[in-house]
Amino acid sequence: MIRRSLLAALLATAIAPPARRGPARAATPALSYRDRLPEDEVIYFVLPDRFENGDPKNDTGKLKGDRLVTGFDPTAKGFYHGGDIKGLLKRIDYIQALGATAIWVGPIFKNKAVQGSKGNETAGYHGYWITDFTQVDPHFGTNADFKALVDAAHARGMKVYMDIIANHTADVIKYRECEADKPCAYRTRADYPYTRKGGVNGPAINPGFLGDGVATPENFAKLTDPSWAYTPYLPKGEEKAKVPAWLNDPIYYHNRGDSTFSTEDSLLGDFGGLDDLMTENPRVIAGMIDIYGKWIDDFGIDGYRIDTAQHVDPAFWQAFVPAMLARAKAKGIPNFHIFGEVFTGDLDVARLAAHTRVDKLPAVLDFAFERAVADTVARGAPTSELFHMFFGDPAYENGEATARTLPTFLGNHDMGRFSMFVKAGMPQASDDEVLKRVILGHAMLLTLRGVPTIYYGDEQGFVSKGNDQLAREDMFASKVAVYNDTRLLGTTKTSATPSFGTENPIFKAIAELARIRTGHRALTRGRQVPRAWGDKPGLFAVSRFDPETGKEILIAFNTSTAPITANVLVDDASTAFTALHGACEAKAAAPGSLKVSLAPLDFIICEAQ
Ligand SMILES: [Ca+2]
Ligand SMILES: [Ca+2]
Q1: pLDDT tens, 335-388?
Q2: Would strands 130-136 and 109-111 be described as parallel, antiparallel, or unpaired?
Q3: Nearest ligand, CA of residue 253?
Q4: Engineering a disulfide at 560: which of 102, 380, 388, 537 sits with its beta carbon 3.0 to 4.6 angstroms away?
């Protein structure tokens, strides 16, 4: 009975008009947001500084001075532009109209406003340089503003995921040996043991310390002198820069110099100078559990995206993750989602999966999916690449069930946008072809297994000119010349005027696909079975199955510029089909075979009756 009414409610959602769903209609969502599983969501990832300016009074973060003090310069891509949490709240209808059910908000904690050597300064507009882990950065507003955003999201059945960091803080600690911005090469544990000052031949320090592998408070209590590799100190005026106060003590950091992301420095080195926390120390583990447990207690948020997860030791996550899940459960949040960033950029599923098995991260961002879709849709790789990537799903802890909870994406704030990959991979492609490929990529994102994660602005045809700062354009009227001179896809406008319309063909395609997805359990929770792939661009097809009714949905994509007609394997029981998108044959050609016809770079979604 319950199932039938749920299905009816889901179908009602599926046929709802595409845009402008207000709070009234969301008051009776198909499932309450607390009951939805991680794989039921469509995530919208936004950097608050670049989304909407809801309050110009906070643009300088309550700091007085020029941009090197306040960090505010809306004309420079590496500085604060004025976006804030009130702006997100103001535009929450827009995000919901796109079909997103969860918002992943880039880090909002108080940052060091400006960092970098003289002449190379940039600002903490991205949020990854935290000084105070207990409060919202004044550039973005207040803790009360954030509470209002979370409550408003929940009131309309949407979730809020926070972006958190446990690997490092802002760059506050300096080393005597690296004054005046001299490079600070990583110093290994073998060359600079914790029990010698300045190398193996140096004087003995920290007597009785048994090494960082003995994770007891008693052992780490013996670690009292932090000058094993370099001599760390707090610059004048910054002695109390960090909150909570324990974070100001250099003993809780590795202090070994800069990471090259290759050897042990990947775990223990400073990420671009950012102070690398000694996450092996039980005091640090307890401290981080306190910090992030409190955000769950106080705000009732729905999940955490974990930044730089692969640069923290597995034992930390093995303690942190269960603590967060328990905190959430106690707060009445049974389906709290946690997904880590393991930036690989390649097809290596084993490396991603290892972090679900060893660290026990519940999920990781699916960089292998990103690469496979970009390769096949933007770079002309054979569709077998998608097959081989999904073939690795059983490698994740709990296998395919975990694979279904991995946030999937096409591009992001670090690597750049999918539209850029298409333009780079297909330099001869017409505007129309680029648009078709961008929509095809989103069709894969929104129908295949995983949790579709849309990078803000992709729906407006933003085309990043590069990665990082160049891929962090403004949704409100931008004053950045290098953003505004790029023509957006699917429209004649640029980012010089606000980008909150609902008419862009990419926006419309995402909204339609998100509606289809969230209206069909087969597409959110269903098992995925590969049906067709090949050794060149062309047909890729999968079936997905409703976990309760067993009903099949066949999804077929054409990654080539030639039309395709083919017989595709389906279940023998699936004899009649209706189209959820595109044109589907009404009847199977024979038991277990459905004829599909696909225009170039098009896709169809066919539901068995
Ligand atoms: Ca503002
Ligand atoms: Ca680290």
Answers
A1: 999 999 999 999 999 999 999 999 999 999 999 999 999 999 999 999 999 999
A2: antiparallel
A3: 2
A4: 537
Expressed in angstroms and rounded, the spacing between residue 149 Cα and the centre of ligand 1 is 15
List for the chain the helix, strand, coil content (%; round to 5). Answer: 35, 20, 50
* Predicted structure pTM score: 0.94
Is 137 catalytic? The answer is: no
Q: Which residues surround ligand 2, an ion (CB under 5 A)?
A: 167, 276, 311
Rg (CA), the chain: 25
In angstroms, what is the span from residue 459 Cα to ligand 1's centroid?
23
Instruction: Choose the catalytic residue: 59, 341, 370, 393.
Output: 341
State the sign of the Cα–Cα–Cα–Cα dihedral 397, 401, 406, 408.
positive
Ligand nearest, relative to CA of residue 259: 2
pLDDT digits (tens, 9 = 90+) for 100-138: 999 999 999 999 999 998 999 999 999 999 999 999 999
385 a catalytic residue: no
pLDDT at 183: 81
Q: How far is the CA of 462 from the centre of ligand 1 (A)?
A: 22
Find the 85 Cα to ligand 1 centroid distance in Å.
8
Residues 137-194 have pLDDT tens digits of 999 999 999 999 999 999 999 999 999 999 999 999 999 999 766 789 999 999 999 9
Annotated active-site residue in 39, 52, 73, 307? 307
- Pairing outcome for strands 337-340 and 363-364: parallel
| 3-state SS, residue 108 | coil
